[in-house]
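SAMPLE LOG
Freezer: B-3
Tube label: C17
Construct: single chain, 126 aa
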Amino acid sequence: MQTFLTPAILKKRGRPATGAAPSRTFRLSDEFIAVLDAWTADQPDQPTDSEALRRLVEIGLTTRTRALPSQRLRSARADRAKELANIIDPAARSEERIARKRRVTKRPADFRDRRVGLPTSKNEQG
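STRUCTURE (predicted):
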C-alpha cells in the first residue's frame, strides 16, 4: 500500500514578531524617568513613554546647537592667556593690553578665512 506524505508546516520557534522595527532595550535612571514623566504630562496628547522618547530623540537630532569647547581646549586657551599676560607690557593701559592680546589670539582678519594649502572640503581633496 502506498501512502502519500504531505510536507508538514513547521512552526517557528520563539515568540512571534510584534512589529517591523527591531526592539531596542536600555536602562534609564529613576531621575530620568521622573523628568520624562513630567515632560509627558505637559504634552497635550499624553504620549506613552516610548513615544515620548521617540519625540525627544527626534527633537534632539533636528536641533542644531553649537558645541562647547572641550576641557583641553579651554585649558590651552587659559595657558595662552597667562603667557600673553607675561609678555605684554604691564605699563600699557588696560585697553591697549586687551587689544594686543586680542590681536595675538584672534589672528589678522585677512588670514583668518584663508586655508592655504588645505582643502576647503572633503569633496575637493582629489
